[in-house]
């Protein structure tokens, strides 16, 4: 068994319109402190420590991905256009033929059916008869799945075997409303969910009791964290754990049961270490900093160029009986701000995350400006952290 949007219509044309474009956003700086601060030996942690079960994955205790294909029926004219989507027509014909209805050669004009993909995640050790949630997504040109019912569909894994069967009414989280001159929508109408919509028919066999050893895989590999996990387990069960690499700790129950050993150690608290890291999402303008980020002595000046273009067209009316035409006369105003008020800010050696955020806020930088500053600090060798760009 293998592992595994909102629309609002434009208002009617007004006699005066204003459009403003800015090269950068003047939003408050957003910085999130993530992770744990390292303390000297013998000093108690200020906050609760995570449990072993929250920072590792147990070998072979994993979920499996399932996928299938099916039909959603009962739609109010929002389904696939049969003439445009041939696979929907073929599927509908094949389904009706299995039920003894022959419609080959008949032109179907129904728009109450939609072809969909059905996906599900089967949790570890799911037993036959267990119910799991499924996700339904439109394949054709259906505009909404609201009010539809998924017909029985088989769900397969990558080995081709059927592991679950799904059926039931779909639940759509979005909505759409419109009038003569406006339209409003929220969420996505072409994806839906069926809570407990699939029944497990086939189990994934694995006998955990017969395992002589078991590996714990760290979700965030780190030498120090792996050593802390092994030391914590060995205090509870001497000699039961050893570090294989930064991402793996091996358990050996020494003649006992691995299930009993996991039960004893999974709730033990562990001090977690992490690499100083900054995660940047340039598309969203989001910056997330770890608590261990440090900066060497450096001076920063940030200036920006803001260009504003304002359109205020006016309507020119001809004189009475002049045979003239009413025209719209453009009127444009362009302004530029080169950020001449920018000043230097000095960050001292070993600056902490809190001081770094306060210093950058004093410059009045936006999140997008912060991205540029952080990348420049890294290039200058003043930023003691890893930068991950998404």
In short:
The chain is of the alpha+beta class. It is 16% helix and 33% strand.
First-last Cα distance: 32 Å
Uncertain ranges: 1-46
DSSP strand content: 25-35%
Question: Order of strands side by side in the largest beta sheet?
Answer: 4-5-6-11-8-7
Q: Report the total helices.
A: 6
Instruction: State the helicity in percent bands.
Output: 10-25%
The average pLDDT value, as a whole number, equals: 78
Task: Write down the overall geometry.
Answer: flat
Largest sheet: 6 strands, antiparallel, barrel
* Rounded radius of gyration (Å): 31 Å
**Tally of separate domains:** 3
Which structural class best describes the helix and strand composition?
alpha+beta
Number of strands: 25
Structure description:
With 390 residues, the chain is an alpha+beta fold. The chain folds into three domains: 7-34 and 277-389, no CATH class; 52-60 and 207-265; 64-200, no CATH class. The chain contains six helices and 25 strands. The strands form eight sheets. Strands 4-5-6-11-8-7 form a six-stranded antiparallel beta barrel. The longest helix is centred in the middle third of the chain and has 14 residues, at 223-236. The radius of gyration is 31 Å and the shape is flat. It starts with 6 loop residues before the first strand and ends with a strand.
């Amino acid at each position: 068994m293998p592992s595994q949007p909102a629309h609002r219509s434009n208002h009617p044309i007004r006699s005066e319109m204003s459009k403003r474009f800015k090269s950068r956003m003047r939003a408050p700086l957003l910085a999130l402190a993530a992770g744990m601060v390292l303390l000297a030996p013998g000093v108690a942690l200020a906050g609760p420590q995570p449990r072993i079960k929250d920072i590792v994955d147990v070998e072979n205790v994993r979920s499996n991905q399932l996928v299938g294909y099916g039909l959603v029926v009962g739609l109010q004219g929002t389904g696939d256009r049969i003439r445009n989507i041939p696979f929907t027509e073929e599927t509908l014909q094949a389904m009706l033929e299995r039920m003894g209805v022959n419609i080959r050669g008949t032109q179907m004009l129904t728009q109450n059916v939609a072809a969909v993909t059905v996906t599900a995640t089967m949790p570890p050790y799911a037993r036959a008869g267990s119910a799991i949630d499924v996700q339904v997504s439109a394949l054709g040109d259906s505009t909404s799945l609201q009010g539809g019912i998924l017909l029985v569909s088989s769900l397969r894994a990558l080995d081709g075997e059927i592991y679950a069967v799904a059926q039931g009414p779909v639940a759509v989280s979005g909505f759409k409303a419109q009038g003569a001159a406006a339209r409003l929508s929220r969420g996505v109408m072409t994806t839906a969910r069926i809570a407990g919509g699939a029944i497990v028919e086939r189990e994934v066999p694995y006998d955990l009791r017969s395992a002589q050893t078991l590996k714990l895989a760290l979700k965030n590999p780190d030498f120090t964290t792996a050593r802390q996990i092994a030391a914590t387990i060995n205090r509870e069960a001497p000699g039961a754990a050893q570090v294989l690499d930064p991402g793996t700790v091996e358990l050996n129950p020494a003649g006992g049961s691995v299930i009993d050993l996991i039960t004893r150690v999974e709730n033990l608290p562990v001090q977690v270490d992490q690499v100083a890291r900054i995660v940047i999402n340039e598309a969203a303008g989001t910056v997330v900093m770890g608590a261990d980020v440090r900066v060497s002595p450096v001076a920063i000046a940030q200036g920006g160029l803001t260009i504003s273009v304002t359109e205020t067209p006016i309507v020119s009316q001809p004189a009475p009986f002049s045979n003239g035409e009413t025209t719209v006369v453009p009127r444009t105003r362009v302004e530029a701000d080169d950020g001449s008020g920018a000043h230097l800010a000095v960050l001292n050696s070993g600056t902490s995350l809190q001081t770094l955020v306060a210093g950058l806020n004093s410059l009045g930088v936006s999140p997008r400006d912060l991205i540029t500053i952080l990348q420049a600090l890294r290039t200058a060798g003043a930023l003691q952290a890893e930068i991950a760009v998404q």
